[in-house]
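User
Here is a favour to ask of a fellow structure person. I am asking you to supply a protein in sequence and structure-token form. Please set it down just below, with no commentary around it:

Assistant
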Amino acid sequence: MKIPKIVHQTWKSKTVPVRWQGAVASVRQHHPGWEYRLWTDAEMDAHVEAHQPELWPVYRDFDKNIMRADVFRYVAMHDIGGLYADLDYEFLRPFPYGSTQLLLSEEFSLSFGDSLDQIANYVFASRPGHPFWKDVITDLIDNPPGVGDYTDVIDATGPGFLSRVFFTNRDRYEGVTVTPKPALSPTRLHSSLERKILLNSGVTYGLHHGSGSWKERWTPTYVRTKIAKALRL
């Protein structure tokens, strides 16, 4: 089964903030003929309650809204399939999905810099029912995550969690493409020259602008967490 031609994105309402409208337009431009679904918080809640009754109590009781946003994108891939992209993810050219059943991307680790493999959770694509997403949902049901502060979200429901499930079970998954960082997760651009290089490289298909304020980057709590995790390596 191929990846269905459906784009999923999420936001609080049907009105996308102006600062992200260009990125959203790029996703639609480079996926012509694909159905587009912008899910609101209320629609996400209704879908999980109706289609994932075992997950619903866990999902409902999450400490932070970003955790529900994380988990819904996994549910959408399992139940419906298609492409998920954060609102601040920009496509530069069409991606050749071909016969891939599960498309994931390596990214620079938010916790450890570039020293460890990590699966991005801001862009991926899948056929419905892929066993990876079943494992993700089962793990959440069996081990409901709790967090102390926003930095814990990375390992509770974010890319750290996704990476753990994937790398623990990857030998069981078929039809998987994991793109290297330059393809879908290059480092953030700092100049127009870097952007021009990516556009002309033929290697990069999209990039994440990383504007999520929830990460609380470079607060004292965040820095302490980074140091503590690094010392445990």
